[in-house]
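To: structure desk
From: M.T.
Subject: fold request, one chain
Message: Could you run this one when you get a chance? Sequence is below, nothing fancy, just the single chain.
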Amino acid sequence: MHFDVILRHGELIDGTGAPRFSADVGVSGERIAAIGDLSGATATHEIDVAGHIVAPGFIDSHTHDDAFVLTDPGVEPKICQGVTTVVAGNCGISLAPLRAEREVPQPLDLLGAWQAFRFPSFAEYLAALDATPAAVNTVALVGHSTLRVRHMSDLQREANAHEIAAMAVDVREAMSAGAFGVSSGTFYPPAAAATQQELIDVCAPLRETGGVFATHLRDETAEIMASLEEAFAIGRALDVRVVLSHHKVAGKENHGRSVQTLARIDAQRTLQPLCLDCHPYPATSTMLRADRIRQSSHVMLAWSKPHPELAGRDFHELLPRFGGSIEAAIEALRPAGAIYFVMDERDVERIFQNEMTMVGSDGLPNDTRPHPRLWGTFPRVLGEFSRTRGLFPLEAAVRKMTGLTAEQFGIEARGHLKVGHYADLVVFDPARVIDRATFAQPTLRPEGIEHVFVNGQAVLSHAKPTGNRPGRALRRQQAGAASASAPATPPNASSNTSSNATPNATEHA
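Reply: Done. Structure tokens follow.
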């Protein structure tokens, strides 16, 4: 039997959380064609991966890569970490549907310059990804804040019935085009005036189409419990899964409250489908905001459009330039973004240990001095959180970045090592894998990620990008629709399959 690629002598972690096992992996075309003893088979390309882990390609559950996959289709910060699929359109911010004719309000500009907002429909955005493929696959959410900017001239008020109806039409069209759900970000100014009922009414098409409701909570500080209840209520009203984005408890006075939030989340998920994502750092990054500055022990300026030379500087050291006033500094520096040391390390660890926590980098690729999570998230979970701190076994770490994410978002035929699934694969050295990016040097590449395949093609070989761009715009199938991405009879399928293989990822989120 002949394959296009055989990965020989690896230790396989299949994305289910099951113990690792020894096997070869055979790839034919874009699919995993065999798992088992392939000593009698040949391949066009054979790679000896003895001493290494072979895992499903990592799925970054929380990104703002909507424009990045178009402007920098090599997507090196992601493939160097083993990421093969990114979930874009988070926090209420999506590139489509919006055709901008002027500067967009923050935080939409975290995705890039206003000229990037050039897609009046979600279908046109996905078509652009088809026409200019990236090195990774893209799962796209439609952002509620983007819809508000598209349909409302005054963002400081509740939407009226006409505006809500127009936004709901966009949601239906986006879901029909292949969006995986809707995201919200009532924490941010464009959507802060939106009520719970507005979100329910705008997202009403999800009752028929399915999908997820991913939310940056209205408040992650003192009012976090009320914000959780709002998210739960919206999910119940829509009968869809709720994704709690970058779950955290922010502000020094709230450190330790993850015990309370996680207990509430665990209790509620016995009643409705819930999951959460997190990144492995005690600092976050977003637009420059006075409330976040006051809640943080340290603030670093990530970028400033009028003052790019100040990127990387300590915000408080800059205050004397602006009369010591936080508000005056923000006014002079904006549009701008910052990195906020606002969380407690033990809260981050505790959240990561929850069985429903997925790995999401939340990186901002356009920042002049980005948060190191952009380049380091996944190797840090593997090397620091699993190997060094022992927070969870490597099998659990891999599940958090593969199978769990595929199942929660409804990403079919990915996230598991299984015959017939797409050959999104990562090979890494479990003894050596680690992040190298720091807050001082945030773009250093990680170590220990050796090979990455997307849809059967190598995008990283011996830790170096190949230049291949086999990624796709993934499209979620609606309830009752035949799945275009469901695996057909796999080519050159072998009977040497492992009993550790998993069922297909569920179609519905």
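Reply (cont.): The longest helix spans residues 161-177. Let me know if you need anything else for the meeting.
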